[in-house]
From TrEMBL:
InterPro entries per UniProt: Amidohydrolase, Bact_exopeptidase_dim_dom, Peptidase_M20, Peptidase_M20_dimer
Protein's UniProt keywords contain Hydrolase: yes
Entry note: cofactor: The Mn(2+) ion enhances activity.
Protein name: Amidohydrolase
Keywords attached to this entry: Hydrolase, Manganese, Metal-binding
Cofactor(s) this protein requires: Mn(2+)
Classification of source organism: Bacteria, Bacillati, Bacillota, Bacilli, Bacillales
Residue intervals of the Peptidase M20 dimerisation domain: 170-259
NCBIfam families with a match to the protein in the record: amidohydrolases
SUPFAM superfamilies assigned: Bacterial exopeptidase dimerisation domain, Zn-dependent exopeptidases
A GO MF label: hydrolase activity
Length: 367
């Protein structure tokens, strides 16, 4: 069987068997089974899903990461695991790159990190804690890109993801009768104030950033009760880690001022921080050479700047000396990432695998 056809069969399997973050038990078993069949040394863990494999010899170590989890979302009226972010494709492309490389003469070792829980924003940390990037000089990733971002047949040497952070808040006031609002503390009033306040936060127009309410829940079935309690959530993003940090600080300060203004308590919980990309120019240059060599100069796309985020960038936050970049593979992907009915041109899988393999090989030989 050709490697291209094998990549397609792997994708078909992983697409049909999605598993959510931290529950990728069967996915881990399948990857380990494939690696065993390929006679590739690999390691699994007793306390977390995911697989780390390695080929080659020598002191120099290059690594590549594939995320393996699926989303939990509503599809045809039913909530279930669903690979609408393309991680099934990422697994298949990385396994394909391994297939193209395993019998070649390498300039060092190549480590393959099959990482859990990217969608939770902290799966990378689990691999870092277990030594997946110990001794690694260069780290590469790969991800399918939406059709409006990168067309089919094009591959970008770098994805400049933005930073993201989520806020969950709880307003603690006092219920009151609709006819006697003075007897209570309406939880909705400070939430409306928060919605207006975040629109007044401004940075340089050359900086990309956003903050918006994504959930508000208050009140019950009785329409004559002014709700004293409410919960809300916020999605906060910026293209740089520095701007996101300042944005968070200003939101914190503003909300606490609103709490004092309305004489009400507001609890805040920030979670699921995902850092912005710290792209290595050296790694991106190696990726450019690999793309051109594997699929031609006409396939080389510009570097991508996107407001989306990926926990891949925790690797460089924890290891600032790590030279990293993520390849973006154009695949005619639509309607979009995380859409429950996302589809793409499967011919992109082999292209991505070949470009990734050439990039990894060049990285083992670079000075």
């Amino acid at each position: 069987m050709s490697i291209e056809k094998q990549i397609g069969e792997w994708f078909t399997h992983f697409h049909a068997h999605p598993e959510i973050s931290w529950k990728e038990v069967e996915t881990t078993k399948k990857i380990a089974e494939i690696l065993t069949d390929m006679n590739v040394q690999h390691l699994t863990f007793d306390d977390v899903t995911g697989v780390v494999a390695e080929i080659g010899e020598g002191d120099r170590i290059i690594a590549v990461r594939a995320d393996i989890d699926a989303l939990w979302q509503e599809v045809d009226g039913v909530f279930r695991a669903n690979h609408s972010c393309g991680h099934d494709a990422n697994i298949s492309m990385v396994l394909g790159a391994l297939s193209y490389l395993k019998d070649k003469k390498l300039g060092g070792r190549i480590r393959f990190i099959f990482q859990p829980a990217e969608e939770k924003g902290n799966g990378a940390n689990s691999m870092i804690e277990r030594g997946a990037v110990d001794g690694v000089s260069h780290l590469f990733g790969v991800h399918l890109r939406p059709q409006e971002e990168t067309p089919f047949g094009k591959i970008s040497p770098a994805i400049h993801h933005g930073a993201a952070l989520f806020l969950e808040g709880k307003v603690k006031g006092t219920d009151a009768h609709g006819a006697r609002p003075q007897q209570g503390k309406n939880a909705l009033d400070p939430i409306f104030a928060i919605a207006q306040y975040i629109k007044t936060i401004h940075f340089s127009p050359y900086e990309a950033y956003s903050a918006k309410l994504t959930k508000v829940q208050a009140g019950g079935d009785s329409l004559n009760i002014i709700p004293g309690s409410a919960v809300f959530a916020m999605d906060v993003r910026a293209q740089s880690n520095t701007v996101l940090k300042e944005l968070r600080e200003r939101i914190d300060t503003g909300i606490q001022s609103i709490a004092k203004l309305y004489d009400i308590e507001i609890e805040l919980n920030w979670s699921d921080y995902t850092p912005a990309a710290e792209v290595s120019e050296e790694a991106a240059a190696i990726a450019k050479e690999g793309i051109v060599e594997a699929v031609g100069k006409e396939a080389l796309a510009p570097e991508i700047v996107t407001s989306g985020s990926d926990d891949f960038h925790f690797y460089t936050i924890h290891r600032p000396d790590l030279k990293a970049t993520m390849l973006g593979v154009g695949a005619d992907l639509g309607p979009g990432l995380h859409h429950p009915y996302m589809t793409f041109n499967h011919d992109a899988l082999d292209m991505g695998a070949k470009a990734l393999a050439a990039t990894l090989l060049k990285a083992t030989l670079s000075e």
